[in-house]
Amino acid sequence: MNARLVVIVAGLGGLAGAACGGGGGAGNGHGGALGGGAGSGGAGGDVPGVATGGTGLGGRDVAGGGAGTSGSGGDAASAGGGRPGAGGAGGGATPDAGADTDAPADMSAPADGGASDGSPDSAAPPDGPDAAIPMGGPEDVVCSDDGWCWSNPWPLGTDLSALLVVSASDVWAGGDTGTIVHYDGTRWRRTTHPGTNTIYAFWAAAPNDVWAVGGLGTLLHWTGQAWRDYSFSQPVVSFSCVWGSGPNDVWAGGLNGVLYWWDGQSWTSALSNTTGTLWSMWGSGPNDVWAGVRDGSFLHFDGGGWRKVASPVSGAINSLWGTGPSDVWANTSDTILHYDGAAWSVQKTGLVKLESISQLWGTSPSDVWAVLSSGSDRDPELAHWDGQSWSTRVLTRKRLGGLTRLAGASATDLWGVGIGGTIIHGDGATFTDVTTGVVAPTSNLASIAVAAPSDVWLGGAQLRHQTTAGGGWLPAPRVDTQTSFTSLWAAGPNDLWAVTNSILSLGFARWNGSAWSPRQDIDFLASPGGLWGSSPNDVWIAGYAGAHLTNGQWERWLGVERQSAVWGFGANDVWMVGGTGTALHWDGQTWSGVGDGNAGTFWDVWGAAPNDVYLVGDRGDLRHWDGQAWSRVQSGTLNALHGIWGRDASDVWVVGDAGTILHRTAAGWVASASGTPRNLWSVDGAPDGEVWAVGAAGTILHRPSR
Description:
- The protein is an all-beta fold.
- The chain is 0% helix and 43% strand.
- Strands 1-10-9-8-7 form a five-stranded antiparallel beta sheet, with no helix packed on it.
- It is elongated, with a radius of gyration of 27 Å.
- 58% of the residues are buried.
């Protein structure tokens, strides 16, 4: 099967159930009796990440889909502003380590709506056979509202916590930053809607009757043309699951026992009889609905009301799935439970040791799958029940991104989705990657240089992107067999400068459009940051012990603090910024400047003119130089800002932690939706307005020129 063409076959039998739980998986109704699955691992905190069951189209009194569990999930934004050690583009450098308003409260009047960050992998190789992603192919198809598109991985790198399959040409997936993408049988596309809260669950009665729920009251309805916004603004709630037996009978639950019911016209509050977060949900029909609670208890709806049912465990009920009223499965992190129509009992303990059980899904009482929260590529990621015993499966995959859910259209047509946009497909015996990528998910990217609109270079990962025939991301020409390039500075289309890292020493090399110059070692260079020059005979490298190329010789430059980045307008007008809020200026003879001991680290500097210079740093620090003094600019964020680049004074871009992107236009500074919560560390662009940003977990974002 072509890994870039996702075809999910859905049965059109019964109306399957959707589910809630911590980022769980989903599936479809199949054969009239079996419902969709759900899954695992979502965002942390009190509200679990939620998955959804898939939906079949047809009868009403049929078994529904299962649900998922909580997980840690996501990319940890660095409060201190640290980032990896390869320098940023355009002089940026790094340290060594490291829409419409809400509906009214009665909900009856909708509005129409439209990985932990670690140190860098300084020489991560392309990711196997998928090392070429041609432009015009899979890139630039899933984009944020502000035009930032995924270039790596493809189709997207967003953590996925919800999945719904209506048919082979009608597939929904959702997750972080409010991402909802749709597969139409040919390609994935992002759909727009109000809000950026994580999507935890889907449920559908028909292709034009789809519900999506998520954090901070997110409640959306797909009409076949657009998402309509039923989200709560008051009271403050968070939804983690949704399930229904038909278009006029839908339940949504979540934080602190919140529970709402849809009668086909409006949402009304219902009494759940618990203050615990509803973690998972599944039902076989309108008078047989189960909910799992974080405190280990169960709730059951019999058509008259919700009541508590005794549970043999105390751990959170991570997921629910079943085939009928007397065959219901559930799990905690270490125990699998079964309901036989009379009582819940322990079905299995000790299934895993280091891993935990995230989610259950199956097609029959003798075909049940468990998704495991694996700790490494050698750990089992799945377990299977054949009606007699459990067995574990270790998946052999190129892209190591933890699964959060599993579901299938049949026993031999299974899909897994998870962290970092992971999508896999298999027949139960083997699985293949659907998600493609040129950089390993463990790589943290910190340097990108745009030499021209058709020529982009990626430091550390040793990649080059070209839009010519046969182009895309391909392995870049190496300086030599023992040398990689890290920090990059593009002086022109055929003039690329790079800090190099060989087995024995640091140095530099220069690309002339067809070949690299021989590596020149700089023995005294220590902890290099960014680089910039006014001419081939005047180039600066920032660092603890930096270097200055003048008259053909590299001279040592030693500062008090490590300098992260350098930028200038000529040989006598150079800025260098770094630790302890240091901003230094070179006038051709001496360095002068002051440090702001309360500022943390300044990470990057860029300017449009000698009297129009910006620097960025920790805790959302954004400052402007007007030719006389530095002044603070309101950035609107406390996230560390790591990279800055501009085309001119009215088109400047800043990137930072938690997917922060800021854009300066003629009207001032505004936030730009990146579509990812990953930390971003470097940004660069071309004169035609094309912009690239890179960061944690192999993230490469592209904003094509407009």
